[in-house]
Write a structure and sequence with these properties.
With 206 residues, the protein is α+β, with helices and mostly antiparallel strands. The protein is 32% helix and 22% strand. Strands 3-4-2-1-5-6 form a six-stranded mixed sheet.
């Protein structure tokens, strides 16, 4: 894949399909140790130790929506070809944890890519899923908590177009500030639904 965000999106979709109600996504970039680490943790139904061990084998999948499982194997290969590692930990009823590491400056490492759109895709899933995102870059941190946003919105749905656009812009600006080594991302104003009459916006069904 051309960017790591596509692997992240695939892993996040795995979590949603496994029935997760919350997902934690952490991206760490450390120049001093030349390390990029991506960690995804969920509270979905999990899988047996045997299934977790086979999860990175091509053509193995627990999904019913597709017959060939290439998501995690491709993610694992992307890590290993950059002198990194890939670990899947899971147990039934206890969720799943996926951790990928990369040598940051490896010539074959794909760029991180569009993580904001991967996160928004989870927020627009048919079933409500909370996601906490943390991106650490050489000690500077950008954090996003979907449940803080939902608490402010009340019964206004995140899928309301103006809210979705605000979330994507907020995530993109946070990523850009980290990338450009600009001022540390601060607390942004909440979506435009705040303070407006709820009837102006799409009601959230959950």
């Amino acid at each position: 894949m051309k960017e790591l965000a596509l692997h992240i999106l695939d892993a996040l979709q795995n979590s949603v399909e496994a029935g997760a109600t919350w997902i934690r996504l952490t991206v760490e970039e450390h120049g001093a140790t030349n390390l990029l680490r991506i960690h995804i943790e969920d509270n979905g139904r999990g899988m047996s130790a045997e299934a977790a061990a086979r999860a990175t084998h091509p053509f193995v999948t627990t999904r019913r929506t597709r017959h060939v499982g290439l998501g995690l194997p491709l993610f694992a290969e992307a890590a290993r070809q950059t002198d990194g590692t890939f670990v899947v930990e899971s147990s039934r009823g206890q969720g799943t944890r996926v951790t990928a590491t990369f040598r940051h400056n490896h010539i074959d490492r794909a760029p991180l890519g569009d993580v904001p759109n991967a996160i928004v895709a989870v927020l627009l899933a048919p079933r409500r899923v909370g996601i906490f995102y943390e991106h650490v870059r050489d000690g500077r941190v950008f954090r996003f908590d979907s449940e803080e946003i939902r608490a402010e919105l009340g019964d206004v749905c995140v899928s309301e177009p103006r809210v979705t656009a605000w979330v994507l812009e907020h995530l993109s600006e946070g990523e850009m500030e980290l990338e450009l080594d600009g001022p540390a991302p601060g607390a942004a104003a909440f979506p435009p639904a705040t303070g407006r009459r709820n009837e102006e916006y799409e009601r959230c069904p959950d």
